[in-house]
Design a protein that fits this description.
The protein is mainly beta. It is built from 4 helices and 22 strands. It is elongated.
Length: 423
C-alpha cells in the first residue's frame, strides 16, 4: 500500500510533463504557432523573449503583445484484452479547458544595439479529469496544474549577430485527486488530495545571426527549472480505522518535492524566399533524461513511510518543425505549419497523467494589420497522438501500482489569438 499511497504525490511530477513533454502543447506566440511553432530564427516581435533572446534586438520597433489559447484535450482509454474474451471497457477524460496566456514587452531606443524585454508566459498548465469510478481511479481521478514563468531579458547586437539572455523565475500550483483502491468509506471510494505551490529558477539564452537580410539562423537554450514544492498539503478521506492503524496521518500532512522541468536546445533557420513568402525550420531537443525518478518527503508518515520513490526513466526527445507565412496583401498574412513530436515516455512507463505517444501536429493561422501600430494574430493547432498500448508485462515490477495497462489515444485542439501594439 505504500506505493499506492505515494501516487497521490507521484502524479504531481508526472503532471508537469503533461504540457512540457507528455502532451507538450507549445503556445508561446500566436504568429509562430501558425507556422508550426517555429521561432528560433525569426525576429517578429517581443515574443523573441521566449523563442530566442538574441533575436529581440533585431525587432524593428518596441512592442507589446498579449495573447491566449484554449486547450481542449481528450484521452481515450481501452482496457486490455482478456484471454478468450474481447475487451469492451472504454472511457475518456473529461478534461476542462486550459487557458495558457502570454505577455511580452520590449523597450529600446530607435537604432540602438541594445534592447530590453519582459516576458510572462505559461509553458505548463491546464489539467486532466477522469471519471471518479474509471478503471484507473486508484492512480488518478483529477488534476489541475498552473504555472507562470516571468523572464526579464536583455539583447545586444554586434554587427550581424544578436546575443541575448533572460532570467527565469517560475511559480505554479497544483491540485490533484485520486482514489485509494484498497480502502472504502461509507460514501464509497476513499481518496487523497494534494495541493501545493512551487517555484524555481532558470535562464534562457540565444544567438541570432542575420546572414543576409532575408536569411537568418538561430540557436537558443532554455535551462532546466527545478520546481520546488515546500509545505504542500496532502489530505485523505479514508476510514477512521486506517487512521487509527497509523496508515494515514490524522488531518493530513505536509510534503516537500522537487519537480524537474527539462532543458531545451533549439536550432532554427528562416528564409524569405520571395517578398511575400517566408519558410522556417526548427529542431528542438528536450532533455527529458533528467527525469529519472520521483521522490517525496513527508512531515508525518504516510503508510508508515516518511518518503517514497517512483521510477520514471524518461529519455531525451526531439521535435521537428516547419512553417510557412504568405503575405496575401500588405495587411493580411496567411500561415501554416507542421511538427512531429517524439515522446519521452519509455515503454512500460506510460501513466494516466502522461498517456503519451509520438504526435503529429498541424497548425494554421493568420494575421491582420489594422494600422502601422496595431495588429492581431490567430492560430489553430490540431494534435493527433499515435495509439499506444501499455502492456502489463512491460510495467516496471517496482512500480506496478503506478500504471494502468491498456490502450491510450490522445487528441488535442487549440485555438488562440493575440493582440500586438508597436510604438
Amino acid at each position: 500500500m505504500i506505493q499506492r499511497n505515494s501516487l497521490v504525490l507521484c502524479a504531481l511530477l508526472a503532471s508537469t510533463s503533461v504540457f512540457g513533454g507528455g502532451y507538450q502543447v507549445a503556445l508561446q506566440g500566436q504568429r509562430q504557432i501558425g507556422m508550426g511553432h517555429t521561432g528560433t530564427a525569426l525576429a517578429f516581435d517581443a515574443s523573441s523573449i521566449f523563442f530566442n533572446p538574441g533575436g529581440l534586438v533585431f525587432t524593428k520597433r518596441n512592442n507589446i503583445t498579449v495573447g491566449g489559447s484554449l486547450i481542449r484535450a481528450r484521452v481515450a482509454y481501452l482496457a486490455p484484452q482478456e484471454p478468450n474474451a474481447p475487451s469492451n471497457y472504454t472511457t475518456q477524460t473529461e478534461s476542462p479547458l486550459g487557458t495558457p496566456f502570454t505577455f511580452y514587452a520590449s523597450f529600446g531606443k530607435a537604432g540602438s544595439n541594445l534592447k530590453f524585454g519582459l516576458g510572462v508566459y505559461t509553458p505548463y498548465g491546464s489539467g486532466v479529469k477522469w471519471a471518479d469510478d474509471w478503471k484507473g481511479y486508484a492512480v488518478l481521478q483529477e488534476l489541475k496544474l498552473q504555472s507562470i514563468f516571468i523572464q526579464p531579458t536583455v539583447s545586444y547586437r554586434i554587427g550581424d549577430v544578436g546575443i541575448g539572455a533572460g532570467f527565469v523565475y517560475a511559480l505554479g500550483n497544483v491540485d490533484l485527486k485520486r482514489g485509494i483502491g484498497s480502502l472504502a468509506t461509507s460514501d464509497g471510494f476513499s481518496s487523497g488530495q494534494l495541493q501545493g505551490n512551487g517555484s524555481g529558477l532558470g535562464y534562457n539564452v540565444g544567438v541570432h545571426y542575420a546572414y543576409e537580410e532575408d536569411f537568418t539562423l538561430g540557436i537558443s537554450y532554455r535551462s532546466k527549472v527545478d520546481m520546488k514544492v515546500e509545505g504542500g498539503d496532502a489530505t485523505f478521506d479514508v476510514p477512521s480505522s486506517a487512521v487509527l492503524l497509523g496508515l494515514f496521518p490524522s488531518g493530513g500532512t505536509k510534503f516537500d518535492a522537487t519537480l524537474p522541468l527539462p532543458a531545451t536546445l533549439s536550432f532554427g533557420m528562416a528564409d524569405k524566399i520571395t517578398s511575400r513568402l517566408t519558410i522556417s525550420f526548427d529542431y528542438n531537443i528536450v532533455f527529458w533524461s533528467a527525469y529519472k525518478e520521483l521522490k517525496f518527503e513527508y512531515e508525518k508518515p504516510v503508510n508508515r513511510a516518511l518518503s517514497t520513490t517512483s521510477p520514471r526513466k524518461y529519455k531525451d526527445a526531439s521535435i521537428y518543425r516547419i512553417g510557412l507565412e504568405y503575405m496575401a496583401n500588405p495587411k493580411l498574412a496567411l500561415r501554416a505549419g507542421y511538427y512531429y513530436d517524439q515522446t519521452p515516455v519509455r515503454d512500460g512507463y506510460m501513466t494516466p497523467e502522461t498517456p503519451d505517444a509520438n504526435r503529429n501536429a498541424f497548425t494554421c493561422g493568420f494575421g491582420y494589420k489594422f494600422s502601422d501600430n496595431f495588429s492581431a494574430d490567430a492560430s489553430f493547432v490540431f494534435i493527433e497522438g499515435a495509439e499506444r498500448e501499455l502492456k502489463s508485462s512491460d510495467i516496471d515490477p517496482n512500480a506496478q501500482d503506478s500504471f494502468v495497462a491498456g490502450t491510450y489515444k490522445l487528441r488535442v485542439l487549440v485555438p488562440g489569438v493575440s493582440l500586438s501594439y508597436k510604438f
